[in-house]
Design brief:
By secondary structure, this protein is α/β, with parallel strands linked by helices. The chain is 22% helix and 29% strand. It has 3 domains: 4-209, no CATH class; 223-309 and 361-375 and 395-439, Aldolase class I (TIM Barrel, Alpha-Beta Barrel), CATH 3.20.20.70; 529-620, no CATH class. The strands form 6 sheets. An 8-stranded parallel β-sheet has the order 24-23-22-21-18-17-16-25. Strands 26, 27, 28, 29, 30, 31, 32 and 33 form an 8-stranded mixed β-sheet that branches. It has a 7-stranded antiparallel β-sheet with strand order 3-4-5-15-10-9-7, covered by helices on one side.
Length: 621
């Protein structure tokens, strides 16, 4: 059967209305049980729901039903952090999850065909609030049941825990809600990599909700943070300053003083009591934070501070004072995160002001130039029932957005160009605008996970970053260069490395690619463009030349004008196709920046070009 849609509207009164047999591209207006649905024929399709007079909508279920077929992969509704664990269809059959405060998801399913390009996509473009996702068919009882040969999925806007919030459900006097259904197949967009489908969806979110792209010059520079290679108890002002002085020589500009600068970090054992929430420097690690910040700047670095402004540990001195602002569950118990701290309530105005003041204090007390906000993803998805404070919003995601907006506003009033790193669990276009860059989760010693997670963020922001990447002495220089190229192919080059223990050859690799990247920095304000479904070849147009990145299995590249090819693979030849006759000077450069060959070549049709693993080729037309 062709893809058909069903929309179920559930009211706060408990009544519901079901609209069946909706076909994308065919307009329809219908009233069922007093609920009127106006389904438009545009793309994306406007869906206008009007409840009976005096009533309001609690949730809207969008169900897609289509024939099942052989797909290569599925990209589940996600923040971009966890989809890599669920790409196989056999795992997807039992998928069920929520977009909640601890993981705000893009509300779209994308299926790739056997050619690895997008085959079908289904999503809902609407305001940012709690949403549930569920695979309806095939079903799993005592076994996987597929004989019905149908694929059915549900996007439920408004969950049982958090119904559609008032800022949506009560925005209009008559209770009308308008969202947009998104549906694409390979017939409309042939040979489109899934990331470009996600980018198209994100672009519609931005357009329909007036969201501007992030543009932060300072955030694009290479970055280092004090996490992967250290136990946080051992990160002192001497370690930080020594790392800054070494990193500046390698082309790194931004430096994050990560978790643990205030006391025990989250890498400590569970029996160690945390003091997170007080936000005072631990004198055993950092004798004078203001002096350290000044020293980092004098060394040529931009200092940034790690913070989880909502976090309050039971052992923090501020705990008694802030207890009344913490999230409490329906049993009257303070909510404890898995890593053993409590959370200030995002739905409470006073709590939001407290969090914003904490963040602003890093500027007024110590003169930091940026911050990394973390651990919102650790907050359990519960409804706050703390009777000691009030709530001025009805959605925890709405409260999170209000928190990030207030923090951003207060900090930028003090420093206009303040650099802020968010995490993709609270990224997506709606929230990424309150930061300067979006971090793609934790992937130490996993360049492929780093690449895929930053690639997801690339769908909606070129300012994609993963600050836990490391390079070891077990990596050959070519392998180290492939790690660096994969980072640059999808985002900002970032490192969490103890440079004292890294060999000189790999330092040369890092320095070479950081300096090359900074020399081409204006281009990296733009989006990378995947040229095939496997996400192995990327193009980034610069002002006078094209920058092409090969990763994993690589692939052929087009030659249209002067071009740089960065070979993040271990292949030694690349296919080059030119639609017209091109004469060019070709320079082959190894992974440390040494020129190994220079010659003139003519290109027309298909040619084979020698490349160095981890190296690059400069083709000057």
């Amino acid at each position: 059967m062709a893809a058909v849609f069903e929309i179920n509207v559930i009211l706060h009164s408990g009544a519901s209305a079901r609209f069946e047999g909706l076909v994308y591209g065919q307009a329809r207006k219908e009233t069922v049980a007093g609920v009127t649905l106006d389904f438009g024929d545009a793309h994306p399709a406007p869906v206008k729901v009007t409840p009976p007079p005096g009533q309001s909508v609690k949730s809207i279920e969008y169900n897609l039903r289509s024939d099942i077929r052989n797909y290569h992969n599925v990209i589940i509704p996600d923040s971009g952090r966890w989809f890599i664990n669920m790409t196989q269809m056999v795992s997807f059959w039992k998928y069920s999850n929520d977009s909640a405060v601890n993981d705000v998801k893009m509300p779209i399913y994308i299926f790739t065909g056997q050619d690895m390009n997008m085959s079908m996509a289904f999503g809902v473009v609407g305001a940012n609030y709690e949403t549930a996702f569920r695979t309806l068919e095939p079903t799993i009882n005592r076994a996987l049941i597929v004989y019905m040969r149908r694929l059915s999925m549900q996007i439920k806007r408004g969950t049982d825990l958090y119904p559609i919030p008032d800022f949506v459900a009560r925005k209009n006097a008559d209770g009308t809600i308008t969202e947009h259904l998104y549906f694409r197949t390979a017939a409309e967009t042939p040979n489109q990599p899934w990331m470009l489908t996600l980018r198209d969806f994100a672009g519609l979110q931005k357009k329909l909700h007036g969201i501007a792209d992030v543009t932060a010059e300072g955030a694009l520079h290479p970055l280092w943070c004090s996490w992967t290679d250290w136990f946080s108890d051992d990160v002192t002002d001497e370690v930080i300053l020594r790392s800054v002085r070494a990193g500046v020589k390698l082309g790194i500009r931004n430096y994050i003083i990560d978790d643990g600068w205030f006391g025990p970090g989250l890498d400590n054992d569970y029996d160690v009591q945390l003091n997170i929430g007080d936000w005072e420097a631990d004198p055993a690690k950092i004798k004078d934070m203001a002096a350290l910040v000044a020293d980092v700047k004098a060394a040529g670095g931009v200092p940034m501070i790690w913070c989880a402004p909502h976090a309050v540990a039971p052992g923090a001195k501020c705990f008694p004072k802030r207890r009344k602002l913490l999230i409490v569950d329906d049993k009257g118990q303070l909510v404890m995160t898995p890593n053993k701290f409590h959370s200030l309530c995002f739905m409470c105005r006073d709590a939001r002001e407290t969090m914003a003041d904490i963040c602003a204090s890093f500027i007024t007390r110590w003169d930091f130039d940026g911050a990394k906000y973390d651990l919102y993803n650790c907050v359990p998805n519960v409804r706050c029932c703390n009777s000691e404070h009030g709530h001025d919003v009805t959605s925890m995601i709405e409260g999170l957005a209000a928190t990030l907006e207030l923090i951003d506003r207060k900090c930028r009033a003090l420093k206009k160009d303040y650099i802020v790193e968010l995490k993709q669990n609270y990224g997506t276009p709606f929230l990424a605008r309150y930061g300067s860059m979006t971090r793609a989760g934790d992937t130490p010693y996993n360049p492929e996970g780093n690449f895929l997670r930053t690639l997801y963020v690339q769908a909606y922001s070129p300012y994609s970053i993963n600050d836990y990447q490391t390079i070891t002495n077990e990596d050959t220089p070519a392998a180290a260069a492939c790690v660096a190229i994969k980072m640059i192919a999808a985002g900002i080059p970032t490192y969490s490395i103890d440079f004292d223990r890294l060999n000189d050859d790999n330092k040369k690799v890092i320095a070479h690619y950081n300096h090359w990247y900074v020399a081409n920095l204006p281009a990296f304000h733009g989006y990378r463009i995947p040229l095939e479904g496997g996400n192995n070849v990327f193009k980034l147009p610069a002002q006078r030349r094209d920058l092409l990145f090969l990763v994993n299995s690589g692939g052929g590249v087009p030659l249209e004008r002067s071009t740089t090819i960065l070979n993040g693979t271990f292949q030694k030849r690349v296919g080059v196709s030119a639609a017209r006759r091109i004469s060019a000077m070709v320079r082959r450069i190894d992974c440390m920046g040494n020129e190994i060959e220079k010659s003139r070549m003519d290109f027309f049709g298909f040619s084979q070009l020698d490349v160095e693993p981890g190296g690059r080729v400069e083709i000057d037309v």
